[in-house]
């Protein structure tokens, strides 16, 4: 099996990044024009990114990550952490559901660490009364 050239590999990475940009835009429920205005880039530039013809420089990647609350690991490499997944879930719940989920996670933390001293955990709150779903 022949090894991809560096150029082919870079084109593939650009396309993968562009797919993640589009996913983020759609999750934010923004059209392309609004998304570009939000990011401070032109729609033409965004179009070249989506086609894999252009690449976000480091300064633009950092700005994008900050403005969209997205990790650089995800933007560049497609890697997600469990924190990203947890934040995504919590951000898509109602405030009541989110509060309930936080109580459940605190209870799980205590159960998983029952043999350890957890007195240094701040703001665990009252988790003895978990409601059922």
Task: Give the structure's gist in a few sentences.
With 133 residues, the chain is mainly alpha-helical.
List keywords for this structure.
434 Repressor (Amino-terminal Domain); mainly alpha; 133 residues
What does this entry look like structurally?
By secondary structure, the protein is mostly helical. The chain folds into 2 domains: 6-79, Orthogonal Bundle (434 Repressor (Amino-terminal Domain)), CATH 1.10.260; 93-133, no CATH class. Helix content is 62%, strand content 0%. The chain is built from 7 helices and no strands. It is elongated and about 55 Å long. Mean pLDDT is 79; it is low at 126-133.
How would the blueprint of this fold be written?
Layout lengths: L5 H22 L4 H8 L3 H8 L7 H11 L3 H6 L4 H10 L3 H18 L21
From the N-terminal CA to the C-terminal CA, the straight-line distance is: 52 Å
Task: Write down the oligomeric state.
Answer: single chain
Please identify which CATH superfamily of the largest domain we are dealing with: lambda repressor-like DNA-binding domains
Strand content: under 5%
Domains counted in the coordinates: how many? 2
Broad shape: elongated
């Amino acid at each position: 099996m022949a090894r991809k050239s560096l150029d082919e590999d870079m084109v593939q990475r650009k396309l993968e990044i562009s797919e993640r940009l589009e996913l983020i835009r759609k999750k934010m429920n923004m059209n392309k024009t609004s998304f570009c205005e939000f990011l401070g880039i032109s729609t033409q530039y965004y179009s070249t990114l989506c086609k894999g013809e252009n690449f976000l420089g480091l300064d633009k990647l950092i700005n994008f990550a900050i403005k969209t609350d997205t990790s650089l690991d995800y933007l560049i490499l497609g890697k997600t952490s469990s924190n990203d997944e947890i934040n995504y879930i919590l951000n898509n719940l109602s405030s009541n559901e989110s509060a309930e989920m936080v109580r459940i996670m605190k209870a799980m933390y205590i159960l998983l660490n029952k043999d350890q001293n957890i007195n240094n955990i701040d703001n665990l709150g009252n988790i003895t009364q978990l409601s059922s779903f």
